[in-house]
Amino acid sequence: MISSELVRSKLQSILPHVQKPGRYTGGELNQVVKDWSTISTKLALVFPDIYDIGMSNLGLTILYDQINQRQDVLAERAYAPWLDMELMMRRENLPMYSLETMHPLASFDILGFSLPYETLYTNVLNILDLAAVPLYSSQRSLQHPLVIAGGNATFNPEPMHAFIDAFAIGEGEEIIHEVIDQYQKWKTLHASRSELLSMLSKIDGIYIPSLYQPIYHSDYKVANIQKIDEDAPLPIVKRIVGKLPPSPTRLLVPMIDIVHNRIPVEIMRGCTRGCRFCHAGMINRPIRQRSVDEIIQTIELALKNTGYEEVGLLSLSSSDYAHILDLIDAINSRFSENRLNVSLPSLRIDTFSVELMNSLKTVRRGGFTLAPEAASEKMRKIINKPVENEQLLETVRAIFSRGWPTIKLYFMIGHPSETIEDVKEIVELCKAVLAVGQSVIGKRAQVNAGVSTFIPKAHTPFQWVACDTFEQITAKQDLLKLELRGKGLKLSWNAPEETMLEAWLSRGDRRMADVIYEAWKNGAKFDAWGEQFHYQIWQDAFKTVGIDPSFYTHRERPIDEVFPWDHISIAVRKKYLIQDYLRSQQGIVWSDCREKCHGCGILPTFADLRRDNPGDIWCCPEVKNPKYSKTTCTPVQTNLSTSLS
Amino acid sequence: MRIRIIFSKTEIIRFTSHLDLYRAWERTLRRAELPLAFSQGFKPHAHINLACALPLGFTSENDLVDIWLARDMTLDEIYQRLTQAVPPGIVIHSVEEIPYQAPSLQKQLTASEYLVTLLLHEDELAEKLERLQKQKVIMRQRKNKEYDLRPLILEISLLPEDTSGRQQIKMTLKARESATGRPEEVLLSLGIEPTTALFHRRHLILMDTSNNS
Do A22 and B17 touch (CB under 8 A)? Predict the structure, then answer.
């Protein structure tokens, strides 16, 4: 294996020939460099997209901080090289290396991949290849690193099952330490690699694909998932933390421009709204909140350590954070001298949100974003995001009159129940919003509509629903393109081909691994980058492997079909998802569960954690009894329950 | 109070662009918690004036940046705070106070002195340099515009080889706002590929304004 000195010297001759060479040098402020000769366990955190994007990823930032707090482990970083750099690396035989100490990735004990979205999969293969680590888990031996992965996409781990040794399902802050502990214990045993995997499978939330085997029907629907190792858990229940650990404050400050140059502070994790299309809302339950004091202290420390001028208060639904008013008051009084720019994304559509933003003294008046998702009453009921048009128009009037000239509206098309009439309502709503804007501020008013396409994601109440056909999506987009143009209107949308790929990758079974490999072999990488995405490569890959991709995306599933991801539990019961799916078919809106617990299944699964973390850290009902009792959480009573058994 | 910071941009941040270096200074000054003077206007920003953009890949020493503070502090305290706040790759040599209304660094700058280290040995380099200096006109093309490089070369000479036995050229090139000589262009006119060289800016030569102030 090549030495870090050789990596450095190769870099010296390569870097003058690539764009943005600062991506490949490391050396940022607050980077943690530890001594390789004294630390036994070395872990590389890998984000399979370029530096500019990966550096802004909160998940890896948290893990880097968590792991490097330990004296016995070092964590370094690596990101996907852009095409020009990859070309040079292959030409000069420079393997993937870590930014901190320029060690080849293959010399680490553990490679941890972050997989927040599915279109990164081919990049994982490319990075393993560049690192000279065998792509297939089954081909790795004792001399190779353990390859683990986590992140939102891994709630359906099956498409990547062949390439990843162990998945960490759910939140990583605690589980990563347990993985490291087991790894260290295994090292002292001088045991086999399969012994390591077996030891890891004892950790709650760890999924080792090689210990399971799906049994298929003749048509490749899943019959069931069988254990190969008797001791392996089934189902594999996601991990959560009872209380959010302290937010990182010694943040890396890059010397080149990246996507988000700001201090990220997660004010709350999880969401109680229950929008039926929302993967994040389902898999990140329950809500865990931080206190105002903790958030303020985090910002103070991080400002000192970084010198950043912006802070992002992150959550899935900012206006739902219980102490939002107190937080904004505290920010105003503490940081008014600092010229701090505060971003507060994901606001509810009501004038309260506008007052919130308005009361933030330091916010920039650029664009104000709202996500109605649907414009017709019918679709709003189906997706469970009830908003009245009147309320929306009142909200946008407040936004325009408070000094924001641009409103961004996010919509979603492509639910199979949606007709062209529903899409016309999106057009009308955008025009109505613009009309309000023009009446308030005249010609400066701007409405940017971002219209994405629905994907029935795993673990959501819509997982049984089919994708819209290619033709339907195109027809709907054509209508939008025709209507949403002219002064003050701007439309952005996703290419249907890209939506299809994301749908296949997120809904696939184990056979998708062959498709991913085939596509990568034929040049697929950076699939999330429009211009690098080659639809034909993927179609060819499906043909070669012999799978009709519509099997994954264009079948409405019967309620009793076993999904390839059914052995992974998000702790929301499948029965609950079924009930909510049936409610969507009947257009029944289901309330925010802060008002009343709907008994989704989180509380019985994590009763101990809730008991240990009482009060408004969580929004679920409290668990007081030493043993969880059924009466604490009101079970769902619906007229549908009889049809479900 | 106007402060001039004399600093180096070292090897590890040689791929930080001029704009990114500007941002790095902004963040450094915020970390140092210096009482910066801000511009007025819709989007106020700190007064930071970097003398001269350094091309990507170059290192520098005796580099200059001016900052404006809203209230006075001792130079020693400014130096201490800055030294603790700079990111890896920026080294502070010293700080000095200069008259608040002195002309901008760009207006005072006349020339830059570079040290160019060749990574590949170049035969007959001394002769080539001599020939270059004898030329009356060195026509070059840059961004589709023809220009004469010769008057921009104020001085060029061969230095003794460095400790690794690499050839080194010292060159002083004009650096006026309207006429700036680029060391890569000098190498190209010598028939040397610039990607096989390391560029280090040793000095910024300022107009003497001491008589005027």
Answer: yes
For residue A300, give the chain B residue with the closest CA: B31
Domain boundary among A190, A216, A237: A237
Task: Tell me if A110 is assigned to some domain.
Answer: yes
The domain boundary, picked from A237, A253, A276, lies at A237
Spatial separation of the C-alpha atoms in residues A181 and A178, rounded to whole Å: 5
Contact B27 A16 (CB under 8 A): no
Residue of B nearest to A256 (CA): B20
Does residue A360 have a pLDDT over 90?
no
For residue A275, CA distances in Å to A41, A423, A584 come to: 42, 19, 10
Express each pLDDT in A96-107 by its tens digit. Answer: 999 999 999 999
Distance from CA of B170 to the nearest CA of A (A): 21
Q: Do B17 and A256 touch (CB under 8 A)?
A: yes
Within a domain: residue A522?
no
Instruction: Choose among A263, A401, A404, A399: nearest CA to A335.
Output: A263
**Which residues in chain A (341-370) have CB-CB distances under 8 A to chain B?**
364
Q: Provide the chain A residues 246-285 that lie in CB contact (below 8 A) with chain B.
A: 253, 255-257, 261
Tens digit of each residue's pLDDT (9 = 90 or more) over B89-130: 999 999 999 999 899 999 999 999 999 999 999 999 999 999
What backbone torsions phi and psi does residue A298 show, to the nearest 5 degrees? -60, -45
Q: 3-class SS at B178?
A: coil
Which residue out of A255, A256, A258 would a mutagenesis test of the B interface target, given it has the greatest number of B Cβ atoms within 10 Å? A255
Contacts B119 to A, Cβ<8 Å: 13
B172 touches chain A (CB under 8 A): no
CATH of the domain at A165: 3.40.50.2300
Residues 6 or more apart in contact with residue B87 via CB below 8 angstroms: A28, A29, A253, A255, B13, B24, B27, B28
Amino acid at A57: N
B66, amino acid identity = D
| A9 at B interface, C-beta within 8 A | no
Facing B24 at nearest CB: one of A255, A303, A338:
A255
Place of tokens 């309207």: B178
* Structural domain harbouring A184: 4-237
| A562 found inside a domain | no
Q: List the single best residue of B9, B11, B12, B16 to mutate versus A (max A Cβ within 10 A).
A: B16
pTM of the predicted protein model: 0.94
Chain A CB within 8 Å of residue B13 CB: yes
ipTM: 0.90
Strand locations in chain B (E): 2-9, 48-50, 59-68, 90-98, 109-118, 139-142, 145-148, 153-159, 168-174, 197-206
Residue A101 touches partner B, C-beta closer than 8 Å: no
Domains of chain B as residue ranges with CATH: 2-102 (3.30.70.580), 107-206 (3.30.70)
With CB atoms and an 8 Å threshold, state whether A21 touches B56: yes
Tell me the percentage of chain B whose pLDDT exceeds 70: 96
Q: Would you give the DSSP letter of residue A467?
A: P
Q: Where are the beta strands (DSSP E) in A441-480?
A: 446-453
Encode pLDDT of A284-322 as tens digits.
Answer: 999 999 999 999 999 999 999 999 999 999 999 999 999
A151: DSSP letter: S
Question: What is the amino acid identity at position A463?
Answer: Q
Q: Cα–Cα distances in Å, from B37 out to A536, A590, B1?
A: 56, 54, 9
**Contact (CB, 8 A) for A109 and A146:** yes
Residues of B in contact with A16 (CB under 8 A): 57, 195
Please report residues of A whose CB lies closer than 8 A to that of B85. 307
Low-confidence ranges of chain B (pLDDT < 50): 212-213
A222 within domain boundaries:
yes
Number of domains in chain A: 2
